[in-house]
Amino acid sequence: MQNIIRAILLRHKNKRIALSYMKRILKDDGINLLADTEWQKQFICTIRYLIQKGVLVPLKNARPLTGYGGLPDRYTIRRDLIAEKEAPLSAEHKNELFSLPAPMSIDYYAHHADTYRRDRDAIIRIRDLIDGDDHEVLTVNERSYEIFGDEKAIDEPQHAAVDGSAVLRNLGLILADIRAKKVFEPFFYIEKGFGAEQGKTKRNVLIVENKDTFWTFQRAVIAGEFDGINLIIYGEGNAIQKKFEYIETVGGTPDDLYFYFGDIDREGIAIFNRLQARYPDYGIKPATSFYTAVLRKAGYRNARPLRTEQNRGQIPLSPFIDGFDEESRAAIEWIITEERYLPQEVLTAVDLRRMKALGLSETF
């Protein structure tokens, strides 16, 4: 990324340059920072490095861009510093570099002397860690603070003073090499027989988008007013995209049966589609009986217009819609096309008791 940005700066005719211009040139060259978080991280790291080196000098009236780690939006270019050649590594630094133990790779730093000098302290700490006898595995943030003095350097470098993930990448290392592991943010859940049935049968897991409906289901299940659900997870809207990884911690496996129940609207469908795509091994499906109950109780033509803060525009209905019968599919398509929605709160505890009485409490 550094070489690409340097080339952009050298080609630029004016003394001043905007971050938006650099992003546009990168996009024209096939690097879309909005679509690729890894490229975005490298871009932020490179701009920070060029600011540190004095190649880019932020204008006094430049605005910080929150989406890019607070980087200023406009700069003066110091072209006389761009072409400055790196001083070669000293004999001491060469010996250090070439004696790094496996699995540390020297390829990148052997050709980037300035970067080695900048990252040297962290590299030495990583070397000592790999050579040491301490086999304790720490969390990513704990190890990050130990190596880089910043707990966010590895996992959230855009919010850190140093890009620790770039250092690991330059050394060809993964988290296991530095004896670090990611921990997952827990979700809130209620279980009934989930642990007791482990290894005996396929257990039913229901992910509920909204808080009120989660509490309605958990009360009904615990009180025996609704059967067939062994674990209820509060999805917390989009938060479930990351939090679902916690499923292993509570004993969930891909052999269990997973169902999702959310609002019938653009965002609810998009959350499901993203969740299923991110965790394909778990075979997550829509809880079609609950969605159908909402449609029949409220009447799809009584769906309300979307709130002003909700996103509009085309969204893919598949795979969410694929498992519904023809009548429900048509109703859902109408709601989305007409930019309307039905909240899952249409379904109440009374409805769950009725579903149980009709023998529908174990068919999601």
TrEMBL record:
Pfam families (alphabetical): JetD_C (PF09983)
The species this protein was found in: Methanofollis liminatans DSM 4140
InterPro entries in the record: JetD_C (IPR024534)
Protein name: Wadjet protein JetD C-terminal domain-containing protein
Domain of life: Archaea
Domain Wadjet protein JetD C-terminal: 202-281
Native organism taxonomy: Archaea, Methanobacteriati, Methanobacteriota, Stenosarchaea group, Methanomicrobia
